[in-house]
Amino acid sequence: MSMSEKAYLDLCEKVLAEGTKKDDRTNTGTLSIFGHQMRFNLAEGFPLLTTKKVPFRLIVSELLWFIKGDTNIRYLLRHNNNIWNEWAFKKWVESEDYNGPDMTDFGHRSTKDPTFKKDYDKQMAIFKKNILEDDDFAEKFGDLGSVYGSQWRAWKTTQGETIDQLKEVIDSIKHNPYSRRHIVSAWNPEDIPTMALPPCHTMFQFYVADGKLSCQLYQRSGDIFLGVPFNIASYALLTYLIAKECGLEPGEFIHTFGDAHIYTNHLEQVQTQLEREPKALPTLSIKDGVSVFDVEIEDIDLKNYDPHPSIKAPVAV
User: Fold this and answer.
1) 209 annotated ligand binder
2) Binding residue per annotation — 261?
3) For residue range 196-238, what is the model confidence (pLDDT) as tens digits?
4) How far is CA 269 from CA 7, 196, 235, 264, in A?
5) Does the model's pTM come out above 0.70?
6) Known catalytic residue at 200
7) Which helix (H) or strand (E) holds 74?
8) Domain residue ranges in the chain
9) Is 82 within any annotated ligand binding site?
10) Which CATH number is 3-71+145-303 given?
């Protein structure tokens, strides 16, 4: 078994065995632990889980969305990526502009009530169409506020200026590789009220040694079944991209958590995943000569990914 995947599966088992039952913001309920760390040696292969199929192209388009500094879901929808829809949709259905059927608590109701699910799917289809085709609608309801892309590329200062944290950290890695200040933060307390979802992955730090670039992420809150597999692959990909930009090899990805939790409506899915035998990890290649700031989805190639089938589970909004 790959030690990389074992680190994730061990976390699942630990939370099932030791987790504390807690209420949460979504009113779903969780099993939770506080403080945990996983390490992924990127020389072993690209850490995309094999015990269930994880949609890599969605991870790529989301990461490129962050890197571009974009905060509007229109870019994601143009790449058939729906993973941020619910937060923008919530803003629409709670606005005075919305005049459709009641969508209160749509996250829970759509999983339990087939009749409501039909109404929800219809309204979501209308919402997506409007985001893609109506510039004014997209500007009003597609933007998620000062989320990751904004903080990474245009952090607001008290002087009314912006800081491109990602560009600055890459310049620092290139010109002062052994600095202990290769840090990007997404947690800006002043901007939290304007964000659709406050950053779960709050800050990350790079480390250079022996010609390799490593990255450590601090994640304040981790949805272990749905979110964390994306986070692992996303930050591993970011490490690959920046290592290539800086003429380094990928080293380790270290994933450090605050509250790591399994939602109570994901328990059966986690048990199913734990019953599966991990397979060999895939490999990743990135087109030569492409800057991290200009990279497109087709420049990134995942090879030999042969996972078990996907496991569906509802998103807690």
Assistant:
1) no
2) yes
3) 788 999 999 999 999 999 999 999 999 999 999 999 999 999 9
4) 18, 27, 24, 10
5) yes
6) yes
7) helix 74-78
8) 3-71+145-303, 85-143
9) no
10) 3.30.572.10
